[in-house]
Design brief:
This protein is α+β, with helices and mostly antiparallel strands and about 230 residues long. The strands form 3 sheets. It has a 6-stranded mixed sheet. The longest helix is centred in the first third of the chain and has 24 residues. About 10% of the residues lie in helices and about 25% in strands.
């Protein structure tokens, strides 16, 4: 009986660890907008949106969102000085199941344009409105080249930017368009070109309604990228 109890406890611990890993791997960048505050923009501020596609809350304490210009070769942590090109989430930061987090970036010249929903975090970067790249990491990368990232969770290259996931970036953006991950963030085939549609920005923050199509337990391979191989 004691041996059986030990096995059951061990099995439960493995299941809990796997569940936590799967939930963390379900995070992805769901929207990118770099035209904020420019002529013809729909909002006065750039932003990046993150989505938790799992049915469990995910703690992202000390994780980072980083921006880099379209052609930067040491892609991450070198585009701007003073660390303005990345934000590190403080201890206790959690994204709820099937919910979003909004990271506000730089304001454009026209601050009279509509404001974003209240951002959950702030990224100091002035993002390009047409071509650039954004990464989500579970640690900070500084002066790291594309392909050598540490703790990479997800990355999105838009327009003509290098370092695209799957080798193809999203379509080119403008002051009035954003890169929107399909199905409100659910689609993830590890190909930016296939996973994103260019359209009007629709920023969501942690107070926005949860994604109504979000599945607690994925049933389709197409809902997870190869980086989330634990599901396969």
């Amino acid at each position: 009986m004691k041996k059986i109890a030990t096995i059951l406890v061990a099995t439960a611990l493995v299941a809990m660890t796997a569940s936590a890993a799967m939930a963390a791997s379900a995070l992805r960048i769901s929207q990118v907008y770099g035209g904020g505050g420019n002529s013809g923009a729909l909002y006065n501020q750039d932003f990046v949106e993150i989505f938790n596609s799992s049915g469990s809350p995910v703690d992202i304490s000390n994780w980072a969102v980083e921006y880099a210009s379209s052609s930067a070769t040491s892609s991450w942590g070198t585009t701007f000085t003073g660390g303005a090109n990345y934000v590190v989430f403080p201890a206790g930061t959690v994204i709820q199941p099937c919910s979003y987090m909004l990271i506000g970036a730089a304001f454009g010249a026209n601050t009279a344009l509509p404001a974003l929903p209240t951002p959950d975090a702030t990224l100091g970067s002035n993002m390009s409105g047409t071509a650039g790249k954004v990464g989500l990491f579970n640690t900070v990368n500084v002066a790291v080249a594309c392909g050598s990232e540490v703790g990479l969770i997800d990355k999105v290259s838009y327009g003509t930017a290098n370092c695209a996931e799957g080798g193809a970036g999203t379509g080119g953006l403008s002051n009035s368009t954003a890169a929107l991950r399909n199905l409100g963030g659910m689609t993830d085939t590890d190909n930016n070109g296939a996973d994103f549609t260019v359209g009007a920005p629709a920023p969501r923050n942690s107070a926005s309604p949860a994604n109504p199509t979000c599945l607690a337990t994925p049933t389709l391979r197409s809902t997870w990228g190869s980086l989330k191989s634990i599901y396969r």
